[in-house]
């Protein structure tokens, strides 16, 4: 399966800001990323990298 990064850099930057802004609402940074990634339309792995 050929996969490509479909998220724009601006979207990923916003996602990173959202994770750090809402990190206290989750048990871990990974949980925050897991909750926010689907909301912005990217995979968790794309957001992590």
Plain-language structure description:
By secondary structure, the chain is mainly α. It has one domain (9-48): Winged helix-like DNA-binding domain superfamily/Winged helix DNA-binding domain (Arc Repressor Mutant, subunit A). It is 63% helix and 0% strand. The chain has three helices and no strands. It has helices spanning 9-22, 29-40, 44-48. Helix 1 (9-22) packs across helix 2. The protein is globular. The two termini are 20 Å apart.
Cα radius of gyration in angstroms:
11 Å
Percentage of residues assigned to helices: 55-70%
Helices and strands, in order, run as HHH
Please give the alpha-carbon distance between the first and last residues: 20 Å
Quickly count the helices: 3
SSE inventory with pairings:
Blueprint: H1 9-22, H2 29-40, H3 44-48
Helix pairs in contact: 1-2
Write a brief structural summary.
By secondary structure, this protein is mostly helical.
Note the main attributes of this structure:
3 helices; mainly alpha; 49 residues; Arc Repressor Mutant, subunit A; 0% strand
